[in-house]
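Board notes (copied after class):
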Amino acid sequence: MHNLLSPSPDRSDSPPAPLCGLEETAAAAPQDWAAATTFALDRARGDDAARPVLFATTGDWRRERGGLSARGLMALGFDPGRVILVKATRETDALWALEEALKSGAVAGAVATVERADFLATRRLDFAGKAGRAHAVLLRTGASNDLSVARLRWRIGTAPSAAHPFDPHAPGAVRLRCELTRRRNWPLGAWIMEQDDETHRLRLAAGLA
């Protein structure tokens, strides 16, 4: 079994790769915020190891969920010096910072934590990502059915960790349940992804690949 939804002859066995442009990610439940943030950062950097990634948050988001951890970033394979943190007062400021960074071409990708983003804002972000050859990710504070030009929309939850290869009593690789809830002109799907300790990237879970 490759993915977790009903099989379709048209569905790929692997999740779609990040696209230059806009996609959206949300936590499946409040306790899944760390998982959703991990996924959003991994999508934002794509395969570009040279350019930094921008992460824009609002004061409300930081008060509710805290900030990024340098140790956590290093566990994901991020040099904390390559993550640009923007502390915005309002969501409109976070979206502006995201757009400016994307269209500059200076970043591999950028993430903004928002509750609402109107259709015009999402269109501008999509254009900015394509112009700067960068990945734009909106990390939504909840599931949304708002009009958006985002080509991919994800719902991320935690999954039981993999078995430890040497100690049956120790946790193994971190695993996430990644459900694709929107995809233009293509089937949806859900996959269990796990962190590769060598590459520090998310991959299809061993045993499902």
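Comment from the instructor: The longest strand covers residues 175-183. Confidence is low (pLDDT under 50) at residues 1-11.
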